[in-house]
Amino acid sequence: MMSLNRLPGVAQVAIQSGRHAADQIKRRLRGKETGQPFSYHDKGSMATISRFSAVASIGKVRFSGLIGWLLWLAVHLLYLVGFKNRLTTVLHWAVSFIGRGRSERVATFQQVFARRALLQVGPGVVRLGERTVPAPDTPEITEPR
User: Fold this and answer.
1) pTM for the complete prediction?
2) 113 compared with 72, residue with greater pLDDT
């Protein structure tokens, strides 16, 4: 993991340092002494592994499995601002969980490579090993944007 001045490259460092910077600006505007050094408070780390499974490390306490997963869900909901955002997130998670679907769309290098190869071959053609056969009702493939 990336680090700067022995601080981990995680969101908590950015959040805490942003609050510290805002506090320093407020102090300067009020004519108070500034220049207090930034100190980072490690709140722990969490990561999901799969459905019903996650790991969480908070201080010296470690959680894993279902308990870690429930803790991960609760903490992430807690940090969302506003009831609407929390409700929307819970509903999105519920739909993803029940339907086993994922709303994220990721283009992998393999997908991009395959699409470009199809563009070079031309529409309506599928290559199977050494044979080239026409593809049945192949939609025209356009260049990705």
Assistant:
1) 0.53
2) 72
